[in-house]
Specification:
The chain is mainly alpha-helical. Helices cover 73% and strands 0% of the residues. The longest helix is centred in the N-terminal third of the chain and has 25 residues.
């Protein structure tokens, strides 16, 4: 089981990091297929998120794609909201139903995400209060479910013509980083380190670090990103439907 998970996490980290994502939704989709403690799922996904997007955020910053004046309003409310989401305790059924809904919409967001070559000319100026509400809402969901939120933030910013694709990818990467840290901080108020499966988490960290570093540096230059993204969207959708069948179907 561990070898299969490690390989899958490496592939997910490689694909997602190339477009500024951490891969949290797909990590959760994969983990949901195994019989693991549901309380550990979001914690493990967020840990892997941090490993992937830390390197990506640094590379985006070094290349000048992080526009702090536009990023700060997005994360001001998202950080405490992600902490609150991570702090809240959910029953197993409630968590998986919420996860299924999140994965369903994540699949739609992946399917319709704008590609890198669909650049815009002028970025849209978003009011700070609007940025705060958008960031706060996505941040709360991020901590609650165990994703970084980039998979929802990125298409939202694209639809608003917020900025160029690489700037949005950089923003999503940093957004995932701070929200994942906040979400984990909230979760650790209830979860003890003694409950963690360190051998498994260690293997996954190594896998996503290598995949994330590779994806952040070379992108998916030899593959069609649209096909890869839509294949991933279909797989995430199937997992969401499987969760619905298990926890909602009577």
């Amino acid at each position: 089981m561990q070898i299969e998970l490690i390989i899958l996490f490496f592939v997910v980290a490689f694909v997602y990091s190339s477009v500024g994502f951490g891969g949290g939704s797909s990590y959760l989709a994969i983990l949901a297929m195994w019989s693991l403690d549901y309380q550990m799922l979001r914690l493990m996904a967020l840990i892997c998120n941090i490993v992937v997007v830390t390197g990506g955020s640094f590379l985006y910053w070094r290349n000048g794609y992080l526009k702090w004046k536009k990023i700060v309003p997005l994360i001001l409310l998202s950080i405490p909201a992600a902490f609150l989401g991570g702090y809240l305790r959910l029953t197993e059924t409630t968590y998986f139903i919420l996860l299924g809904i999140t994965l369903f919409f994540a699949a739609i967001a992946l399917w319709f995400k704008r590609t890198e070559n669909e650049e815009i000319v002028n970025g849209e100026k978003m009011k700070p209060i609007s940025s705060g509400f958008i960031g706060g809402g996505i941040g709360f969901l991020s901590g609650l479910v165990g994703i970084g939120g980039g998979i929802f933030l990125s298409p939202t910013l694209h639809l608003m013509n917020w900025d160029k694709a690489k700037v949005i990818a950089a923003t999503a990467s940093f957004f995932i980083l701070v929200n994942s840290i906040a979400g984990i901080t909230g979760q650790l108020q209830h979860v003890s380190f003694n409950e963690l499966n360190f051998p498994l988490i260690g293997g996954l960290i190594i896998a996503v670090f290598l995949g994330g570093q590779l994806g952040s540096r070379i992108g998916i230059v030899k593959f069609d990103p649209l096909i890869l993204r839509r294949v991933t969207a279909v797989l995430v959708l199937l997992v969401s439907l499987r969760i619905f069948w298990k926890y909602i179907a009577i």
